[in-house]
Amino acid sequence: MSSRKFFVGGNWKMNGDKETLGELIMTLNTASLNDEAEVVCGAPSIYLDYVRSKLDQRIGVAAQNCYKVPKGAFTGEISPAMIKDCGIDWVILGHSERRHVFGESDELIGQKVAHCLENDLCVIACIGEKLEEREAGTTEDVVFEQTKVIADNVKDWAHVVLAYEPVWAIGTGKTATPDQAQEVHEKLREWLRENVSDAVAGSVRIIYGGSVTGGNCKELAAQADIDGFLVGGASLKPEFVDIINARS
């Protein structure tokens, strides 16, 4: 296994209330978690303060999105400064649902990445191809183009985790096979080596997302270039503990 610290993010999306999230937090706070894993939970923005106040400090908290400027007339948006003010250190950017449901462009996502990093907010930057793009054989073109826009806006990769999430595997029950996922992760690392640096290629964590469960996590985690997971639905269930402990 590499020296890169295993990273598991839970993306709770638009789910939960204080009662159910409180129960989940209790489960996580009392669970035996792998000390070698870094864990971050992405809470709905309205619950960020609540979750940070209740969740054990060994577990990080992330906002699921934010805007590209510090403040202003942007109804419904939140800024990195606000996120930091709630004691939150992470944000998820470029998730496929932001790209394809809300129409966020590569350019906007790149601007958000730059602004967050300038304000000391760590970024989980998401990339991934749609089913028709995979079937057309353009997976590499799509994910390299998305990664380039992110990379163009990063000065310090120590605060960035790349999340490869094939869109066709998110919430569908379909998972990229360990070989399929490893192949893309390996090619992403090669791209970083050629376009950024050997050091960044060797150190940046590339995590996998797309119907990760307690049942498939160990085999995925055993792949050389898969450094963890961004977990959707399963992060709201007790099996999230099993996924965190996939390398235990």
TrEMBL record:
GO terms for molecular function: methylglyoxal synthase activity; triose-phosphate isomerase activity. Its EC number is 5.3.1.1. CDD domains: TIM. It comes from the Eukaryota. The keyword Translocase does not apply. It catalyses: dihydroxyacetone phosphate = methylglyoxal + phosphate; D-glyceraldehyde 3-phosphate = dihydroxyacetone phosphate. It is an enzyme of class 5 (isomerase). PANTHER family: TRIOSEPHOSPHATE ISOMERASE, TRIOSEPHOSPHATE ISOMERASE A. Homodimer. This is Triosephosphate isomerase.
